[in-house]
Amino acid sequence: MDCVLGLDIGTTSTIGILVDPPNRRIVATASRPVTLSAPHPGWAEEDPAQWWTNVCAIVRELLGAAPGSRVAAVGVAGMVPALILLDRDGHCLRPSIQQSDGRCEREVAEIAARIAEPEFLGMTGNGINQQLILAKLRWIARHEPDTLARLATIMGSYDYIGFRLTGQRRIERNWALEGGLVDLATGTVSPRLCSLGGIDPAWLPPLVGSTEIAGLVTPSAAAATGLAPGTPVIGGVADHVASAYAAGVNAPGTVLLKFGGAGDVLASASAARPDRRLFLDYHAIPGRFMPNGCMASTGSLLNWVAATLCAHEEGAARAAGRRLHAHLDELAAAVPPGCEGLVMLPYFLGEKSPIHDPQARGVLAGLSLGHGVGHIWRAALEGTGYAFRHHVEVFAELGHAPDRLLASDGGSCSPVWMQIVADLHGRPVQVLSGHPGSCLGSAWLAAIGAGFGVDYDGVADFVSLGRLHEPDVTLGPLYDEGYARFRDLYRRLASWFAARD
Predict the structure, then answer these.
(1) How is 127-167 classified by DSSP, letter by letter?
(2) What separation in angstroms does the CA of 176 have from each of 83, 98, 122, 189, 238?
(3) Do 337 and 195 lie in a common domain?
(4) Structural domain tally of the chain?
(5) Which three-class secondary structure string do you get for 368-437?
(6) What is the CATH number of the domain that holds 494?
(7) Whether residue 150 is found in the same domain as residue 50
(8) Is residue 117 part of a domain?
(9) Cα–Cα distance between 440 and 246 in angstroms, integer?
(10) What is the pLDDT of residue 350?
(11) I want to staple 362 with a disulfide (CB 3.0 to 4.6 A). Which of 241, 258, 348, 404 is the partner?
(12) What's the DSSP call for residue 350?
């Protein structure tokens, strides 16, 4: 049986999937945890060697689950735009600097002083922000000159795994686009953009597309993983793009809300419409784009609220035979919509899109002695829902108004949360079922690149529809008012956030 292997190099775990394309069948999945390090406040780093160790273990586990199968191609997805620095021998010079890392505020300001943001936005499709590879390299030059002196190659998370598998140094084009290195007009790396980050173009390997063959598995990588030498490895894809593509965000009118530790909002577009409030990526399907937003804290915020403000409810949850989150959902469901005036700003890790304010913080406003645990939990559910609505509003302004909203990832399993989101958007929310995530998208793109004779739409056969949450239209005016108060609260506090030491 010929299969394709999909890998996802994620922030919290490395995931693998073995797919049988002709029979539209998932053969096996496996995962390993990843350690995120924060050696200083605001930093976010990981060890790429751990990703490779995970990949070797995962591939062997998957092959063991399907004896007699042959992996005909490998696809790799991963977080963007993480930064990996290699020397001439291919060794990592330091831990990765993750996309969520916040150390580059000074360097971002320096870039903004050298080029007007509207011009930068028009060139790259993305605004000037702390995710830029340009800013990260300026930080390295300032703080780690010895590292810079030994630098030979820069690349992203999934590019690194592709390099370990094939020995070929390549960078997938979405990593370069989100990193601020690609001129949208030409689709190539821009020397002018590189100069903003002090980047020597020689550090950048050739660009490769998601379904292009980037190289073949080397004998040493074969020995480490169990793959056959010479197995094609496809160029790869950004994790959020892979996940949304596999979920069906492949034509205008569909918007995916991802309820993970962070929150992602993704749409499909036939043309690039750069806006500083959003990020812009190439779609997995050639000729299309994927405007998207990322909220720094969604599920992780709820986990914090549960552990810090609501931990005393753990005993009641156990007594009722429920997990704490499900118990808190039940308490929140008993609270009237609008939370009796309680509003939460969910910016507990600062915020990425659409406000791009690393100084923003979480706020619980309007507390009274009449509020209880259910109110606090519902305020968190509504606050994150309002933040999703803010993104959808921006999409609509840019011509990407949704006909339907899809919901995926762990948070979509909460019926209470999904109903709140449907009500405050005034649109149905369709929960996806059986979506294994980015690894599926990377596997299917590998099948396309390896010539399995499948088309881009075939990935839809793997994902089914779960519960449809219809909005209660009578709540529209109440949630419109709540959303207005949510937006106004941030506007009033933005200057206070900025003035903090």
Answers:
(1) -S-TT-HHHHHHHHHHH-HHHHHT--EEE-HHHHHHHHHHS
(2) 11, 15, 16, 8, 11
(3) no
(4) 2
(5) CCCCCHHHHHHHHHHHHHHHHHHHHHHHHHCCCCCCEEEEECHHHHCHHHHHHHHHHHCCCEEEEECCCC
(6) 3.30.420.40
(7) yes
(8) yes
(9) 7
(10) 87
(11) 348
(12) B
Distance from CA of residue 488 to its chain's centroid? 27
Torsional class of 178: left (φ above 0), alpha (ψ -120 to 50), beta (otherwise)? alpha
Would you state the pLDDT for residue 41? 79
- Angle formed at CA 287 by CA 283 and CA 291, multiple of 5 degrees: 40
- Residue ranges for the chain with pLDDT beneath 50: none
DSSP string, 159-227: HHHHHHHHS---EEHHHHHHTT-EETTTTEE-HHHHHHTT--GGGSPPEE-TTSEEEE--HHHHHHH-P
Give residue 305's domain range. 299-392+474-499
Q: Which two tokens stand for residue 385?
A: 């829902």
Distance CA 197, CA 195 (A): 5
Q: What is the pLDDT of residue 42?
A: 78
Determine the angle formed by the axes of helices 373-397 and 299-308, rounding to 10 degrees. Answer: 170
d(CA 423, CA 429) in angstroms, rounded, equals 9
Strands 84-86 and 153-155: antiparallel
Closest CA to 122 of 355, 266, 280, 240: 280
Residue 120 DSSP class: H
CA atoms within 13 A on the CB side of 367: 10
Last residue of one domain, picked from the residues 213, 240, 267: 240
**How does pLDDT run across 246-296, given as a tens digit for each residue?**
999 998 899 999 998 889 999 999 999 999 999 999 999 999 999 999 998
Domain contains 379:
yes
**pLDDT value for 501:** 56
What digits encode the pLDDT tens for the residues 340-352? 999 999 998 889 9
Strands 171-172 and 207-208: parallel
What is the spatial distance between Cα 364 and Cα 343, in angstroms, rounded to a whole number? 6
Residue carrying the six token digits 């990593």: 175
Specify if 210 maps to a domain.
yes
Facing residues of 363 across strands? 345
In angstroms, the CA 154 to CA 194 distance is 12
Instruction: Answer yes or no: is 22 within a domain.
Output: yes
**Pair of tokens at residue 64:** 């063991």
